[in-house]
Structures are given as C-alpha cells and as structure tokens.
Design a protein that fits this description.
Blueprint: H1 20-33, H2 37-52, H3 58-70, H4 75-118, H5 122-150, H6 154-168, H7 174-188, H8 215-244, H9 249-260, H10 267-281, H11 287-298, H12 307-320, H13 322-347, H14 351-355, H15 358-386, E1 388-389, E2 392-393, H16 395-409, H17 415-432
Antiparallel strand pairs: 1-2
C-alpha cells in the first residue's frame, strides 16, 4: 500500500558515511525484523537511517520515498535499495534491496511447504479456517485506509467504481485496468478538474522545471541497466526451462513478470490478478489456499508481495513436488523483484526531475484511485470464500471478521497479532463445534 508514515519535521544532521560492512549488517538486521507492512518498514528506516544514524538527510529520504511511490512494486523495498544506492552505489542498492527480501522469502517457502504438505491435518485445517475471516477484515481495513486518502474527489470515486466494475463484471485484466487509469490521469493532468489528489496544478516547479540531464545520458543509463537486468533475469529462467521443461515454469515467469510491472498500489492491488490466475486459470491452488498465503505473508518479515512466492511454490508443488516448488518459488521471487532494482538503479539520479512532473503525479493519483476498486474486488473474492457457505452465510466467520476489523480500525491489535488471534480462534472453534 502506498501509505508511508514519515515525519517531515524530523531533521538530523548527516553524519559520516558508514562502511559497507556496517551498512550491510543493518540491512540484514532489517530483513529479519521488517514486520508490519510498508508503513512500519518505512518508519523503521526513517528512525534508523535518518534520525539515529544520520546516514541520509531528511530531504534525500523523502525524495527517495516519493520516487518509490511513483513506481510499481514494493515501495519499502525500493526505498531500502535507494538508501543503499545513496550510501554505496550500485552494490549498496543490490545488497540493501536483496537483504530486505531474502529472509521473508525463505520463511515463506518453509511456511508454504507446511501448508502444502500438512494442509490436510486437522490442526492445520483448524488454524487456517480461523484465519479466513481475519484476512477478509485485513483487506477491508486496507481498503478503508487507502480509499479514505485516495478517493477524496468525485472523479476519484468514479474511477474506483469503474475499475471494480471492469474487473468484476467486465472481465478486464488487472494490467489493462491499471495502465488505462494511468493514461487517464496523464490525459487529464493539464485540466483544471483532472487532479486526483486535490492539487490545483503542478506548481512553479512542475512541468516547467528544466531537466539538468541530457536525454541521451538518460537513455544510455536506462538502456545499460535494462540489459543487465534482462541478463540477470533471463539466464536463470532460460536454464530452468531448458533443464526442467516449461511446466509450470513458463507460466510462472510470464505471470509474475507481468505482475511486477503493474503492481501500483501495493500487494493488495495486484492480488486479485494473481489470485484469479493462480486459482482459475492455472489451477495451482484453491481459493482457501490463496487466503492462507496472504495470511502467511502478513506474518513474515519483508514486503507483503512475497505472497507471490507462496503462489509460485504451489505452482511447482502441484506439478512435481518439493524440488519443483522451491525452484518455482525462487523464479517467482526473482522476476517479481528484479524490476524494482532496475527502476532504482536506472532512475535514482533523475528522481527530482520526475517528481516535478504533474503528469507523473496525476498518473499515480489516478492509478491509486483505480486500485481502491481493485481491492474492493479482492475483498469480494475472498469474502465469498470465507464468509459464505453452500447453505448460506457463515455467521460465525462474519462475526469474527467484524470483530477483527474493529480491532484493527481502533489500532488495538497489529496485523500479525490479528492473524495469530485468528489462528487461535480457528482451533477454539474446532474444539467447540
């Protein structure tokens, strides 16, 4: 979710740049402790990198955060890569961004194996059954948080409704909805009524801002980094397809590469697209298994989009067992996050120029408004699975979902703790009934 929590008034004098080893230790530590979603993860980097250590100035931090918010992909991971780039160049970006991902990826693969191999056991079934209504509550809570900020104009509300209808009733693919919304925002950026975030114009430093970079230099840098990224992604993918065959790896590579370039709005936005493909198109997993994956992603460190690793694991598991599952999950993680490194390493030198563009800000605003409708579709998708039985409404789960939403809305319980409470609720319900 594009919802950072950063204090603009927090100012700390920039101290001496850390050694690569000192920074690497922090990035590894962050990778194992980055619970709480993007807002919490961004706040952790604000506290450590700006306030306490003074590795990066407040203005630099906010510029990096604003740039990450304009990009598809997990903004907290991209911010970590950006700070790493500011400190130690390309190797810093690669290490910081990778350390942010790997611990959560390993945890997710292990938990996916437990879910796949032990999912038929009575205890595991009870645990996951209790998590279902909690996941629905978490999604509705995310919908409220994003929608209350993004849909504050009639135009934004209309775009959210149109996006929901396009996906739910029109069967239009998520990437098309997102790209169309972005184009819509660009077209309207020059009009007086086309601002989605309540802005009146691009400001004096908006579209009139002159770029300090030559176009040829920008093209050259993006071309070079893109070629390297293509090689890093294509080589392992080609080897996997050559050695192990196309099933399920070709579909895994295609699906998650596409998703990586359209994940504006965070994991909740792209989940309906991934869930529909994984459940209905490729039959890699069932709707309850998809809900379980989201619940597990909420309880592990790292970005929530690591739920894709879980889906990739099940793709391999259903095809050929554990070895194929680990390979498919690894390929999924690679193609999901590789574009984020591309965007940071290639684009970081030009962030101020991009942020000055009204069309870029308005495109993001339009996409975020559309994402609200997409997340509502996700809530409906999971709600039909968790809250409705063949005989009618599942009243116990409905009540549990309402209680979970109130606890989250009031801020009395964190998301990971709410998932744990849901698992306990499942065990208690199983023993009682």
């Amino acid at each position: 979710m594009k919802e950072p929590v950063v204090s603009e008034s927090s100012v700390a004098p920039k101290k001496a740049q850390p050694s690569f080893g000192e920074a690497a230790y922090y990035w590894v530590k962050l990778g194992f402790t980055s619970f709480g979603g993007p807002a919490g993860q961004i706040a952790m980097m604000q506290s450590e990198c700006v306030d306490k250590r003074g590795w990066i100035g407040q203005d630099e931090f906010l510029r990096g955060l604003n740039y990450a918010m304009l990009l598809p992909g997990p903004e907290a991971q991209q911010l970590a890569a950006y700070i790493g780039w500011r400190l130690h160049g390309v190797r810093g970006a690669l290490f910081a961004g990778t350390a942010f991902i790997v611990p959560g990826m390993v945890f997710m693969i292990v938990l996916a194996w437990v879910a796949a191999s032990q999912g038929d056991s009575t205890l595991v079934k009870a645990l996951f059954e209790g998590v279902k209504p909690v996941v629905v509550a978490i999604i509705i809570y995310a919908l409220w948080r994003i929608g209350s900020k993004a849909c504050n104009t009639a135009l934004a509300i209309g775009l959210a409704i149109a996006a929901f209808a396009a996906i739910k009733f029109g069967g239009i693919a998520f990437p098309i909805v997102v790209l169309t919304a972005g184009l819509f925002g660009v077209v309207l950026s020059g009009t007086s009524w086309g601002q989605f975030a309540g802005e009146t114009d691009g400001g004096p430093t908006g579209d009139a801002a002159a770029s300090s970079f030559k176009l040829a230099d920008v093209i050259r840098r993006w071309g070079t980094v893109s070629l390297w990224a293509l090689a890093v992604g294509a080589i392992p993918c080609a080897l996997a397809l050559t050695i192990f065959g196309s099933t399920p790896y070709a579909d895994v590579i295609k699906l998650f590469t596409t998703a990586a370039f359209v994940t504006f709005g965070g994991a909740y936005a792209v989940l309906p697209y991934i869930a529909d493909a994984g459940v209905n198109v490729y039959n890699w997993l069932t709707p309850p298994e998809m809900i379980n994956g989201l619940a597990l992603a909420e309880t592990t460190p790292g970005p929530l989009i690591l739920v894709t690793t879980y889906v990739g694991f099940f793709a391999g598991w259903k095809a050929a067992g554990l070895g194929a599952a680990v390979l498919a999950a690894s390929l999924t993680t690679l193609v999901t996050f590789l574009p984020s490194f591309l965007f940071i390493i290639a684009g970081a030198p030009y962030i101020e120029d991009l942020q000055a563009r009204a069309w870029a800000r308005n495109a993001l605003g339009a996409i975020t408004a559309a994402v609200v409708g997409v997340i509502f579709n996700l809530a409906v998708f999971f709600g039909e699975t968790a809250l409705v039985q063949a005989s009618g409404p599942h009243w116990i789960n409905i009540i549990a979902a309402l209680v979970a939403f109130v606890l989250l809305f009031k801020g009395w319980v964190s998301v990971p703790l709410m998932v744990a409470l849901g698992a306990g609720f499942g065990v208690v319900t199983h023993l009682a009934f």
